Amino acid sequence: MEKLGKPAKVYLALVFIILYAPIFYLIFYSFNSGGTMSSFEGFTLEHYAAVFADTRLIIILMNTLIVALLSALVSTAIGVLGAIGIVFLRNNKMRNAVLSLNNILIVSPDVIIGASFLILFTMVGIKLGFASVLISHIAFSIPIVVIMVLPKLLDMNHSLIDAASDLGASKRDILTRVILPYIKPGIFAGFFLALTYSLDDFAVTFFVTGNGFSTLSVEIYSMARAGITLTINALSALIFVVTMGLVVGYYFFNNRARQSMGTGGPRP
Questions:
Q1: Is 155 in the same domain as 180?
Q2: pLDDT of 32-44, one tens digit each?
Q3: Do 201 and 117 meet the contact criterion of CB atoms below 8 Å apart?
């Protein structure tokens, strides 16, 4: 691969500055002892202390984490099985149709998806709250997992499956001891991406959340409408750090999985 020239490096630097400068500006003033973002008066952690001292905010944080973890786990399980089912479909037209439907869900606007779920839950009588948010997050995370797992499945040599079958392995053994170990990087990628999407989602959650239940993204929006305070900065900074931790975790597990694949690979 050719090295990037100086203009390309300058362009990339400008892109990263534009993307990250507002975030670091927000984080910088989360340590401001003053009450505004106009001037930095001194270093303090009181805004972070205010976040952790707010019992209601801690409950909302726990709600957000529970929904994110549950939706990521369920959507990963369903998405992995769905991707395997798509790859092993013998009818090419059916396979392409299912892939198209999956991709449409990814590119559809969140507002449309959120409004659709709101109408659906109203029609079937599901009360808006934890259940409606969890179901919605699972639904929009499944296509993401499918997209992350499919490349690994398509890259897999099907002779491994044939060899395992010839050696007397059952379909369950082939799935658990051949296919799943091989696509492990894609599974981890899908899980962490689904977890991140769930933590950050606002549009869909805003439509399907109800009284008495909220997530951090919706709560931050409500707090911002009431007036900008540096507590929002502190809360946003914490969310950013958690998200970055998830990304680092994904790359860590992905690199370990690649190294294990390179040293030994899956064995039937």
A1: yes
A2: 887 777 788 888 8
A3: no
- Residues β-bridged to residue 32: 43
Kindly report the CA angle at 197 between 14 and 47, in degrees rounded to 5? 75
Q: Which of 207, 198, 206 is nearest to 138 (CA)?
A: 198
Q: Is 202 exposed, middle or buried (0-12, 13-18, 19+ CB in 10 A)?
A: middle
Q: Which of 85-89, 112-116, 157-161 has the lowest mean pLDDT?
A: 157-161
Query: Do 137 and 105 belong together in one domain?
Result: yes
Cα–Cα distance for residue pair 231/50, rounded to 1 Å? 7
Residue 96 tokens, joined:
């392409």
pLDDT band at 161 (very low <50, low <70, confident <90, very high): confident
Instruction: Provide the token pair at 128.
Output: 């808006």
Q: Domain for residue 268, yes or no?
A: no
Q: Tell me, what amino acid is at 261?
A: M
The Cβ-side half-sphere exposure at 25, using a 13 Å CA radius, reads 10
Phi/psi region, residue 125 (left: phi>0; alpha: psi -120 to 50; beta: rest), is left
61 and 150 in a single domain? The answer is yes
Amino acid at 97: A
The predicted model gives 247-254 an average pLDDT of 74
Q: Which helix (H) or strand (E) holds 166?
A: helix 159-166
Q: pTM of this prediction?
A: 0.79
